[in-house]
Amino acid sequence: MVEKELCFGFYNTSPLWIKEQFGITQFEFPDITINKHLARPIPERLRIGHKMEYVFEQLLSESKGWQILAKNLLVDRNKERLGELDFIVHNKVEQKNYHIELAYKFYIINPEITEPIHRLMGPNKKDMFFTKLDKLKNKQFPLLFSKELASQLNELRLIPEELKQEVCFKAQLFAPYENNTTSIRPLNKDCIVGNWIRFDDFNTTAFKQYEYYITYKQEWVVKPTLDRRYTSHYETLLEINLRMLKQNAPMLWLKKPDDSIEKLFVVWW
């Protein structure tokens, strides 16, 4: 069931931008019948990003128009690891090959920052969108043309200059609580799926009327459901307080009296 939820979550997450922005073209994920997808096992101990690689591979392989030629191509220089390429794929209709870098991110929108692309950061302030962009453009994409990769590409009968380079960059964005008007242009507003709030603001009477489920990290991807153990505001506060001391921002599923559910990050900073 977990694998199926991850596949649903990934497929239904919007791309962070449409077509080309920042000099990078967004990969258009093909349409598949996701309801009929038979999810295959995914190793449990992987981080979310690596689990999403398994999901990407499963779902793209289900499309009749695409073929995966290679994945996780390691690029080494002597004993130094320069990096790796996520996927080399073949479009059967176009008869063209692509180098695809995959990213699946969770960003809060910080309206206190002026520049839109700098507003996006991980809930623990460690993962910044603009640094990921810089890495894609100046490290990941140039790896395709490194001499250290030449023999592997030659085995695949691929010429690097003939590959189109794109990114499959999906993201869930979280706006400040009760303030969804922050501009994120030219990014895709459909990526906004929830809110974030500081701990002191969460620790107020306004939130006592709701029940909460504190998610595991792999559940960040999936659509909230009622089949979890929801707890009171008081019980939730006790657990969140421990997370705050560790500077760890949890994602909650906030359940309202009408059984509607919202995603909410509570941040420590």
Automatic annotation (TrEMBL):
Lineage runs:
Bacteria, Pseudomonadati, Bacteroidota, Flavobacteriia, Flavobacteriales
Task: Return the InterPro entries for the record.
Answer: DUF1853
The protein, known as: DUF1853 family protein
Organism equals: Croceitalea marina
Please name one Pfam family that this protein belongs to: DUF1853
